[in-house]
Design goal:
This protein is α/β, with parallel strands linked by helices and 295 residues long. The chain is built from 11 helices and 13 strands. It has a single domain, classed as Rossmann fold. Helices cover 37% and strands 18% of the residues. The longest helix is centred in the middle third of the chain and has 20 residues, at 136-155. The radius of gyration is 19 Å and the shape is globular. InterPro entries: Epimerase_deHydtase, NAD(P)-bd_dom_sf. Residues 91-222 form the NAD-dependent epimerase/dehydratase domain.
Length: 295
């Protein structure tokens, strides 16, 4: 099959999926996907994406793809970045049947999260470890992963699950948060570690998986330098030539309930599978190189 007959369809053209979509489009692939129809912002987004040559469809839980069988008819690769809700995974709920009928499907990717592992008190997690979610959101993710991998078991569809660490990239990084004045504090919680990944490296991992598909496989997607968030903020401040925000003890820190849920889990995510199995060479193996490139 030649490049010009490759067709990537993304359920959810968000930050990560769009970075990947543009990478594949640059190789001559046909690219299409979905955005939510609800806001004015999305109207502007639709126009921008269509100007880039990406075919855009409206989709959300209450609005299935119109003529899904036709839309997905010649698709060779599918990526879903749509998070599940309380009611489950809306992509599968609405379109599992059409996905199962795709004749030319070579690869399917589902973007999940390392949140499925839950808390390990700073220990290392590998893809085959048992899952121990600490929030309802992570429980929903585990269910969605099972349903996607079920397509491999039931229909032989080549599904791959990618568990993403904290994502950063252009316009979405500690540098941007500091410049905008959003970061008022560094949270002091010694030994509390997070893993992260540059959005370009997510695209690199997905591309590598397409070249070496292994149906039913799960991959941790993160860099090689898990670190305490306060140290990352300190480093970003230094790059910007500003004083870092004050250190505040975790117990005293003001945070939204949503922000607090991210601190339930303390773990180091192992990335050796993407390196050994997919041959990935990360462009940004640590936050220092990633942040420098964003400067």
């Amino acid at each position: 099959m030649s490049h010009d007959s490759k067709h990537l369809f993304c359920f959810g053209l968000g930050f990560s999926a769009l970075t990947f979509a543009r990478k594949m489009q640059a190789k001559g692939w046909k690219v299409s996907g979905t955005i939510r129809p609800d806001s004015q912002k999305d109207q502007g987004k639709r126009e921008r994406l269509e100007a880039e040559g990406i075919v855009v469809h409206s989709f959300e839980r209450t609005l299935p793809l119109i003529e899904a069988s036709t839309v997905l008819g010649d698709v060779t690769h599918i990526l879903s970045s749509v998070p599940p809700g309380k009611e489950g995974d809306c992509v599968l709920e609405l379109h599992a049947a059409e996905i199962a009928k795709c004749k030319n499907l070579e690869w399917v990717g589902y973007l999940s999260t390392t949140g499925v592992y839950g808390n390990r008190d700073g220990g290392v997690v590998f893809e085959d470890d048992s899952l121990n979610p600490s929030s309802p959101r992570s429980e929903q993710r585990i269910q969605a992963e099972k349903e996607w991998l079920g397509l491999t078991e039931v229909h032989g569809i080549p599904v791959h699950v990618f568990r993403l660490a904290g994502i950063y990239g252009p316009g979405r990084s500690p540098l941007d948060s500091l410049k905008s004045g959003r970061v008022k504090q560094r949270i002091d919680k010694p030994g509390h570690i997070f893993s992260r990944i540059h959005v370009e490296d997510i695209a690199n991992v997905l591309d590598a998986s397409i070249k070496r598909p292994r149906a039913g496989r799960i991959y941790n997607v993160c860099d090689s330098a898990p670190e305490e968030p306060s140290k990352v903020t300190t480093y970003a401040s230094r790059l910007l030539g500003i004083d870092p925000p004050p250190l505040v003890a975790f117990d005293q820190a003001e945070m939204s309930p949503m922000a607090r849920t991210f601190w339930l889990d303390n773990k180091r995510v192992d990335n050796s599978r993407i390196i050994s199995e997919l041959g990935v060479k990360l462009d940004y193996p640590d936050y220092q190189s990633g942040l420098k490139s964003l400067l």
